[in-house]
């Protein structure tokens, strides 16, 4: 069941109040701070997109279906008419690292 806006707002205020109080009294045991670098996704040229698809050994149409885009978009990527968005590049990075494993996750879904 979806929460209404006032419930979400109350939870946010309560959480921020708890953080404020912890910072004021020096009790940082409930606070976790993590920092890490997130590298930019690989920039995919037409040739690189086709190489990823070739690793899966699938047609443009099937590749498009697997990654959730149109066949026309894959065609445009591979011909250099368009370039993949940063989010698509992240997905292409995942596929490129381990194509067989990626296919297993798609088949299991």
Number of strands: 0
H/I helix tally: 6
Mean pLDDT over the full residue set: 91
Determine Rg (CA atoms, Å): 22 Å
End-to-end distance: 24 Å
Overall 3D form: elongated
Describe the fold and architecture.
The protein is 65% helix and 0% strand. The protein has six helices and no strands. It has 109 residues and is mainly α.
Quick overview:
By secondary structure, the chain is mostly helical.
Features:
109 residues, elongated, mainly alpha, 6 helices
Fold topology:
Blueprint: H1 5-25, H2 46-56, H3 60-67, H4 71-79, H5 86-97, H6 99-108
